[in-house]
Amino acid sequence: MIIIGVSVAVWFENLNEERKEHEFEKIVLSEMTNNLKVDLKWISNELRTLNKGIVSSKKINAILLDKNLSTDSLKYYMIDIGWYSTAIFNTAAYETIKSKGLDLVRDNELRQAITST
To answer: Which has more confidence, 8 or 37?
Structure first.
């Protein structure tokens, strides 16, 4: 009877640990999803800025090649091509997964997608 009681207690403890790990996995994957959404938004904004710089560079080139064009807006075009930034992506959730072990992610396909990037 004691053996059965201990076995049931161990089983419940393992079940509880598994539930906690699954909850932690969901939290970390949700955080990773949010991080990626923020990073994607930043990249989209950066692409718009870079494309604006390309258009401005072409306009500057046209002004320099055609001496008859007005140079009034040249300074505005120069400002557009002078912007640049450094990407700093939020990798906290990814680092958490790495430190806790990649087996934290139960889905094999998802785990491979995370590690292959």
So the answer is: 37
